[in-house]
Amino acid sequence: MKILLHMCCAPCTVYPLRVLEGEQVRVSGFFFNPNIHPYQEYQRRMETVRQFAAQAALEVIYRDEYDVGRFLRQIVFRESERCRLCYHLRLEAAAQLAGRSRMDAFTTTLLYSKRQNHELIRQLGEEVGRQMGIPFLYRDFRRGWREGIEQSKALGLYRQNYCGCIYSEQERFQKGRSEPSPYQTP
Q1: Do residues 129 and 95 touch, judged by C-beta distance below 8 A?
Q2: 38 preceded by cis ω (within 30°)?
């Protein structure tokens, strides 16, 4: 079985890759994350994916399009739906590539994070998969959360401290302030 694994970052890839390879799945990575802000963070995450891919002998397809302006235009005035829109954007791109590349299915490392909306990712992945004619491979990778963290540290991978978008950066660094972020999802 050939799977396209959308990769949000290298640390979130460590555990899912191990699980999939343990299932005798042939994995190809896909890095496409136009949501990451600022540009230096985007570059650092992509470079860390390159570092990890070399260590893991993982073939990765890079859609190196830093178009944060396009991403923000899709989100502005819909901040409460930003995660849904962001997930959809990346899952749709993964499904399209998986179909063109004659993969058997696609999945995402977003399913690894305890901080992401897991059920929404599953729902959107299955929906996009049906639309594109390529199955979405669902796996709950969260059970390996601690193990993945320890492995990524042992590998010396850069570990970011926010999801990637400007809104998550604001939420992360405004914690503890008296005023809530105007972008927080109710």
Answers
A1: yes
A2: yes
Q: Mind listing the pLDDT tens digit for each residue in 6-36?
A: 999 999 999 999 999 999 999 999 999 999 9
Virtual torsion, Cα 66, 96, 119, 113, nearest 10 deg: -40
Q: How many CB atoms neighbour CB 151 within 10 A?
A: 15
What are the structural domain ranges in the chain?
A: 2-174
**What Cα–Cα distance (Å) separates residue 136 from each residue in 20, 27, 111?**
14, 14, 12
pLDDT digit string, tens, across residues 114-139:
989 999 999 999 999 999 999 999 99
SS3 179: coil
* DSSP-derived secondary structure letter, 169: H
> Measured between alpha carbons, how far is 182 from 177 in angstroms, rounded to an integer?
12
Residues 9, 160 contacting (CB under 8 angstroms): yes
Beta bridge partners of 105: 3
**Pairing state of beta strands 26-31 and 105-108?**
unpaired
Q: What is the pLDDT of residue 31?
A: 98
- Which two tokens mark 73? 């235009």
Indicate the Cα dihedral angle 35, 108, 26, 157, nearest 10°.
Answer: 60
Q: Which CATH class is domain 2-174?
A: alpha beta
Lookup: tokens for 169? 């950066």
